[in-house]
Design goal:
The protein has 847 residues and is an alpha+beta fold. It is 26% helix and 26% strand. It has a seven-stranded mixed sheet, sandwiched between helices. Strands 5-6-4-3-7-12 form a six-stranded mixed sheet, with no helix packed on it. A five-stranded mixed sheet has the order 14-17-20-21-22. Helix 6 packs across helix 7 and helix 21 runs antiparallel to helix 22.
């Protein structure tokens, strides 16, 4: 995000003398520039010029330690060794820098000064002396990385520019300035420059704006300039990668000429590191005007710049010393007939022609590149350069010759160079297309009574040219606003510049008869019921990697067929999950790693990949899509059923005085899954099943009618080991959409409460040990008929006397009639019916 130094802003717009970063943020937010943060001054307090009056070397364990008397322009009775002394115009300072010498002019941080990192300077006794301040290095002040010695102003500043002793250096070095960092939206790329921010500040306050471009006169472009050719046979989205390319040449630049002090200070304030005169000038002009530039060593160039796409197998070593394989869609700057690659167009230059300490002749490039091309190359190679940030948001195509001339002027002024009188300007840009709009459109859309005159005034304020015919307006947007292409764009500008605070707050009336859908109410009821039974609801991202390898899911399992994202947020999670467990197990692992009890549940959508998946069409703008387009869009969207899943281990509730806690087992997972069905009125019937990642023999499928709607049980030990989850962890996952489809239509009908007494009957049946208890319960419940108010299994008995292959299941029947007291004969009839059904369907007998 760009930084806004107030002193720099003052060059382009009238700024009050007492303006601070807080007030500047309030002014800019009115026109839509959101403050990101206010960066406090790097150094606060007194950082002054000091003169080393005397120097005493101290011998301390073979270390270079000096005790210096430094004149800082004020009387000070620093006692030195603690003895009484008359006032002397100097302070005693202990310093360990090897380059400190008597007679030098240095930077001294006096007591009370706070350096970067919150390091506060104070007077303290050390090495037998009172150190009454600190002589500073570049690293300690945040001016650079050099910590080999202190800053010697005689070398750091140009000759004759050393201020008097005692002069504060905070402002001159850019260390005492508060900075505002702003957040620039993608449609406001021109605000990535001081020129753009100053323009917006002028819009907000009405203060006079002075456009720096108005005072620059570019040199004429002729055929005598450095030759440039654009060869782009593969334009993206119909846009040629480069439609303007300006070059200028400056010869005889002094390679040892330093960047001016004010320029280095402003670059530092803007978050950039000063490097050399030519590089600093191109960076400064980019920050000031918004046009990225590049400087080449002309001696290393071969005649003729060629702008083209990359060829198969080409590579480039960029300025960051990284060798990169090029993509055919990368736009390149080349020379030598297009055979030698010099850099990524609009992103970063190459190392072969970079400016170095011997450069005297400089070739300046200022071009206009296609935003999509630059954005794709920047992301493809992970090079988020300052140039790419601007090009991908859109740069004013008219800036290139002006910015190049600005660089030329600086190189001539500060580097002693001589500019070639002609330059190259290969220009195929198209002027902004005019569009028509109704002048009353902003009033209708925003709800404020803007007049047509106010709308026209606002558009002219932002640089538009407007022709009026009654209420109809023909608008030509300025070249720095490529986002203004239709009337609704102007509506946003009018609302922004006329003041968002002028827009009334109108609360829309809530339409009657609406609320949560039946499925939404059911989902909320399910999550509430699971939370009441000890599970904690979590929310995970729907993106998955190759998790099914850890879950031990077979390669041919349909769950492995997932939708792959074209632009995933993480390379290791490129798919949309096909099951909730695919992402829930990761949340479970993190909870375990943080020492939390493992009992997590999630409700959300999963994505099923269709058998034939085609691309979704892009409907046209400014009109409704056709029925065919809508049908194709819907057909391309995969099914996304709603699931619920849970993972648990250990006790769901802590133990207490009345009993110890019991760890959950596979039976609890099945019961929790069945409770989901009961919450919405669907009986989920369990049956033995085998499905990864569950443990064979401890896994059940849940059926609603004839449809399998999910699985529950204990997770497989191999999966638990791969996922770092506790042993014997259990899980379930259910398809809620399938369960809701099985909800009976009459579930909301109320059954009258019977006032007649209930009859209780217990039946114990002996059957094969392999018979599922759920199947036996289902047989008993169906046989008991309408008189059975409740049937439950309350005992599972096994013993040697029954036989190793037999078991006894005991069922408690609660019988009741709605209109009478049941007779003994009716109760006995139910008993006999149950026994007969058990014998017929289960081969069971009464115990």
């Amino acid at each position: 995000m760009p930084y806004v130094p107030i002193e720099w802003l003052r060059e382009h717009v009238d700024v009050p003398a007492d303006l601070d970063a807080t007030k500047l943020a309030a002014d800019l937010v009115k026109v839509g520039l959101e403050p990101e943060q206010i960066v406090p001054a790097k150094v606060t307090g007194d950082l002054v010029v000091g003169h080393v009056v005397s120097l005493e070397r101290l011998n301390h364990k073979n270390k270079t330690i000096s005790y210096a008397r430094v004149d800082v322009g004020e009387l000070n009775d620093a006692p030195g060794t603690g003895a009484e002394a008359a006032p002397v115009p100097s302070r005693g300072v202990i310093c360990g820098a090897p380059n400190l010498e008597q007679g030098q002019n240095v930077l001294v941080a006096l007591p009370g000064t706070v350096l970067p990192g919150g390091f506060e300077i104070s007077a303290r006794k050390t090495y037998g002396h009172i150190s009454d301040g600190m002589i500073c290095s570049e690293l300690e002040l945040g001016l650079g990385e050099d910590h080999t010695g202190i800053i010697v102003l005689d070398e750091f500043l140009p000759e004759g520019e050393i201020p008097p002793v005692g002069t504060s250096m905070l402002r001159r070095l850019g260390l005492g300035t508060e900075l505002l960092e702003i957040n620039v939206t993608p449609d406001r790329g021109y605000c990535y420059s001081m020129r753009g921010v100053a323009r917006e500040y002028s819009h907000s306050t009405g203060n006079a704006f002075r456009d720096p471009v108005a005072f620059i006169r570019p040199a004429p472009a002729t055929d005598a300039g450095f030759p440039v050719t654009v060869q782009d046979e593969r334009p993206l989205h119909g846009n040629v990668g480069c439609d303007r390319f300006v070059t200028r040449v400056v010869r005889g630049v002094d390679p040892a000429a330093p960047s001016p002090d004010w320029m280095k200070r402003r670059l530092t304030e803007a978050g950039m590191r000063p490097i050399s005169l030519a590089v600093d000038i191109t960076n400064y002009v980019m920050l000031d005007l918004g046009q990225p530039l590049h400087a080449y060593d002309l001696a290393k160039m071969r005649e003729g710049v060629v702008v083209r796409r990359a060829r198969p197998g080409e590579r480039l070593t960029t300025l960051d010393d990284v060798d990169r394989a090029l993509d055919p869609e990368d736009l390149l700057i080349t020379d030598d007939g297009g055979d030698r690659v010099l850099g990524f167009a609009g992103v970063m230059g190459g190392a072969s022609t970079e400016i170095d300490a011997d450069t005297t002749d400089v070739l300046i490039e200022a071009a206009h590149f296609d935003p999509s091309t630059v954005a794709r190359s920047s992301r493809r190679h992970r090079l988020p350069s300052e140039a790419a940030k601007r090009f991908e948001r859109g740069v004013d195509p008219e800036l290139a010759p002006v910015a190049a001339q600005r660089v030329v002027d600086f190189l001539v002024e500060y580097g002693g160079g001589v500019a070639d009188p002609e330059g190259t300007d290969l220009n195929t840009t198209a002027a902004p297309a005019p569009f028509r709009m109704d002048g009353m459109l902003p009033a209708r859309h925003v709800g404020v009574d803007y007049t047509v005159e106010q709308v026209v005034e606002t558009m002219e304020e932002i640089g538009c040219r407007v022709q009026r015919d009654g209420d109809q307006l023909t608008v030509i947007a300025p070249t720095w606003r490529p986002d203004l292409v239709q009337g609704v764009d102007i509506v946003e500008e009018v609302a922004r510049l006329r003041g968002y605070d002028q827009i009334p707050s109108v609360v829309p009336p809530a339409p009657a008869g609406r609320g949560l859908t039946p499925d939404q109410r059911r989902r909320r009821a399910i999550m509430r019921a699971l939370a009441e039974h000890g599970l904690n609801e979590v929310l995970s991202y729907p993106f998955a990697g190759d998790i099914y390898e850890k879950l031990d899911v077979p390669a041919d399992d349909p769950r492995r067929i997932m939708m792959r994202l074209a632009n995933p947020i993480a390379d290791d999670q490129p798919y949309m999950r096909s099951t909730l467990l695919a992402t829930l197990v990761d949340a479970a692992r993190r909870n375990v790693g943080r020492g939390n009890a493992l009992a997590v549940v999630e409700s959300g959508m999963v994505t099923k990949r269709p058998e034939s998946h085609g691309p979704s069409p892009l409907p046209p703008l400014a009109k409704l899509p056709s029925d065919d387009d809508l049908a194709a869009i819907h057909a391309s969207v995969p099914a996304q059923p709603w699931h619920v899943a849970a993972v648990a281990a250990g006790p769901l509730a802590p133990g207490g005085a009345l009993g110890d806690a019991r760890a959950v087992d596979w039976g609890d997972a099945i019961e929790l899954a069945r409770m989901v069905g009961r919450t919405v009125g669907v009986d989920l019937v369990p049956a033995p099943a085998t499905l990864a990642p569950w443990h064979p023999g401890r896994c059940a499928e849940l059926r609603a009618g004839d449809a399998v709607v999910g699985h529950a049980g204990e997770l497989h030990p191999r999966a638990l080991e791969a996922l770092d989850l506790p042993q014997r962890s259990v899980a379930f996952e259910l398809d809620l959409d399938a369960i809701f489809a099985a909800v009976p239509e009459d579930q909301h009908q109320v059954t009258p409460v019977s006032t007649f007494p209930a009859a209780k009957e217990d039946i114990a049946l002996v059957m094969a040990a392999s018979t599922p208890a759920a199947r036996a319960l289902d047989v008993v419940r169906r046989a008991a008929g309408e008189l059975a108010e409740d049937v439950r299994l309350f005992d599972d008995y096994r013993s040697e006397s029954l036989g190793a292959d037999l078991k006894s299941l005991a069922f408690a029947l609660r019988l009741r009639a709605p209109d009478r007291t049941l007779s003994a004969e009716e109760i006995a009839g139910v008993r006999e019916t149950v026994l007969a059904a058990a014998a017929d369907e289960l081969n069971a007998r009464l115990r």
